[in-house]
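URGENT: need a sanity check before tomorrow's submission.

F., can you look over the Tryptophan-rich sensory protein record below? I want to be sure the sequence and structure line up before it goes out.
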Amino acid sequence: MRKPIVYGLFIIASVAVGVISGVSNIPGEWYQQLNKPFFNPPNWIFGPVWTVLYGMIGAALASTWYDQNNTRRLVVFAVQAVLNLLWSPAFFGMQNPVLGLTIIVPMLAFILLFIAMSWRPNRTAALLFVPYALWVAFATMLNISIVMLN
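Structure tokens as predicted:
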């Protein structure tokens, strides 16, 4: 298959998985009643931000897919992806911010590890993950704050 098609498929699949995860774990009344920190963004911002980030995540995966000696980076990518998919059901579905925190901290660590491991062999993949790392770091601060305030 040609590279542009593969990139497109990885990006579409990544965004689709993110949308399915988001739609399956919509914050409900429980979340609205939680005490949140002053820096909590409005709810409408999460969908567009995550959609862009999932597109970048898909592009990073496609780029890494074509690299030689990519096995360790693909494993790190897979671990962060599984943790990413577990966070919303834990936090919103189970209504458990503490469990969410126990998932998001290692998720952030694996995102940073992917960036570090990719920096030399695939700077593009690493750079595509930087906004994701920044957003998840922010989400981790939100998660910690919600645990502390509730």
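My own read: The helical segments are 3-24, 29-32, 46-65, 71-93, 97-118, 123-149. The mean pLDDT is 94. If you see anything odd, call me.
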